[in-house]
Amino acid sequence: MTGGKVALLLVEQIWGILLCLILLRNLVAVPVGVGVGAFNAPVCLGNCSAVPDCHQACIDKGFPKGGVCLGFSFSDLACCCTS
Questions:
Q1: Distance (Å, rounded) from C-alpha 9 to C-alpha 46?
Q2: Which InterPro entries does the UniProt entry name for this protein (predicted)?
Q3: pLDDT digit string (tens) for 5-62?
Q4: Which 3 state secondary structure label does DSSP give 70?
Q5: Run of H or E including 78
Q6: Element (H or E) spanning 44, and its range?
Q7: Exposure string over 40-73, b if 16+ CB within 10 A, otherwise e
Q8: Overall average pLDDT of the 66-82 stretch
Q9: Can you give the pTM of this predicted structure?
């Protein structure tokens, strides 16, 4: 790999991590006046490539809002459910 490709890959990974952290922060944000234990952290079922329909699989597991694929890159997505 050339230096330019390595630098580009590093920048992509850093942006992916930052975006994921922002998304997770928004998923677990606690409204003002609510206790710390009241937030809903996502529950992940596994790789999205192994779950044919992430949204429906989460509904079937008892998460009424379904689920989405989250991750750092398209090759590293996990099926995560929200309640």
A1: 25
A2: Scorpion_toxin-like_sf (IPR036574)
A3: 877 777 788 777 777 676 666 665 555 544 444 455 678 888 888 888 999 999 999 9
A4: strand
A5: strand 77-81
A6: strand 43-47
A7: eebebbeebeebeebbebbeeeebeebbbbbbbe
A8: 83
A9: 0.50
